[in-house]
Amino acid sequence: MKIDITIKNLVLGLSLFVFLTLYVPEKTEAEIELIDRVIAVVDTGIILESELNSRVGDIIGRLRSEGTELPPKDLLEEQVLERLIIEEIQLQLGEKAGIKISDSELNSSLSMIAAQNSMDIEKFKESLESSGESYTNLRESVRKEMIIQRVQRGKVGSKIKISEQEIENFLNSQEGKSRLAEEFNVQQILLSIKKDASEKDISAVEELGLKIKERYENGESFKKLATTYSSDQNALEGGSLGWRKAAELPTLFVEEVKNMKVGQISNLIRSGAGFHIIRLAEKKGDVVKFEDQTLVRHILVQPSEIRSEKQTEELINLIHSKLIDGEEFKQLARQYSEDPGSKMSGGDLGWNNSGTFDPAFEAEIKNSNIGQISKPFKSGFGWHILEVLERRNEDISENVRKNKAYQIIFNRKFEQELQRTLIELRSEAYVDIKLTS
Fold it and tell me: Does pLDDT of 10 surpass 70?
């Protein structure tokens, strides 16, 4: 019975649709209702009233949700229209410059947005749709925003210059010290000297300090040495001063600590209380970073028009035999290697972070012991033999601090320059506003 009613309703609906389609009474010009209209012409593009209304609606909704008092609607519309005009100018510049956003780039950006909302992309789509939003519209908005960002980087980024001195000034400023502050876990041994101590007594304490340093460098525990010899109140805690920022450390220690690597101890530091030996136990903070690095050298030979793949493999095997027989790596690298960057330095590639080289080369480094000459292997560049000379976990915090300081300065200059650039672009563009109150 339900099916019959549905069919009847459907037939009736179709009949009405046909009637309405066939019979359309004429309307006077005043009665014609415009669905959408152009409210601004911007160079070769247009802005529609629906775009303005949609953007204004979004902003009003956001302001209300934040409990912010709404500005007069006509002023809000003017501001939003101006923003749409500037966006349109930049999108046209992007089109002229041939800027394209690939699907993979767009999908990556949307996945990041979803992750920021603690969702995977599928859950994010469902959440949007359940709240009445369009995922397709969001994709288009993000695509446009990515184009605008690239236009801005191209137009503005090249104008910004930052000197080493500016970076140093920022790092030494109160703001720089606060924003990019590291924290240090420092231990100390204090060898006290009495006020009336003779030169002989002072020399004896100094000699003891040098012996303590030597014992630490020979593998003894700093904590044990501090417990045994330190006169400081934290001696029984292994001399630990706890986690402190540079500004919270004794002035005598600050420059020493900044220049120390984790696990390193200082030279003897003289103060009114005696001689101090400090050790940097740990370091932490947003700018603190350590990277595994490898010191490696290699010999590379490559196929060419006059050397076949088979001949190249035979040559690398010959070089390997020479190495196994005791010939010097440096000499053979200078004689045979076809890597122009390392040939004359005996194949030395210097210290490098993991992930720097071709995947096959990286895999061989990972599987090699220090001092072990690898068997010949092939990468995307040709045939290699390599030797890992040393490994280390390097503190690159200073580089990270400088990079972050650079980024902070760049962002400030970018914002200032961007406003000037957008004003120039707006003044140079043809804009015809058709918005009426």
Answer: no
Tell me the pLDDT band of 354, cut-offs 50, 70 and 90: confident
Domains 183-284 and 290-394 share a fold: yes
Q: How many residues does the chain have?
A: 437
Looking at residue 31, its amino acid is E
Q: Identity (one letter) of the amino acid at 166?
A: E
Report pLDDT for 18: 29
The CATH number assigned to the domain with range 290-394 reads: 3.10.50.40
Total-model pTM: 0.51
Q: Per-residue pLDDT averaged across 192-214, rounded? A: 92
pLDDT 10s digits, 341-352 = 899 999 999 999
CATH architecture of 183-284: Roll (3.10)
For residues 66-79, average pLDDT: 86
Q: What pLDDT, on a 0 to 100 scale, did the predictor assign at position 437?
A: 54
Report d(CA 94, CA 428) in Å as an integer.
Answer: 16
What backbone torsions phi and psi does residue 175 show, to the nearest 5 degrees?
Answer: -65, -45
Is there a contact between 208 and 276 (Cβ–Cβ < 8 Å)? no
Q: Where are the domains of the chain?
A: 2-30, 102-144, 183-284, 290-394
Indicate the pLDDT class of residue 19, thresholds 50, 70 and 90.
very low
Which residues contact residue 212 at a Cβ distance below 8 angstroms, ignoring those fewer than 6 apart?
A: 189, 191, 225, 229, 277
236-258 average pLDDT score: 86
What the block records as the tokens of 330 is 């440096």
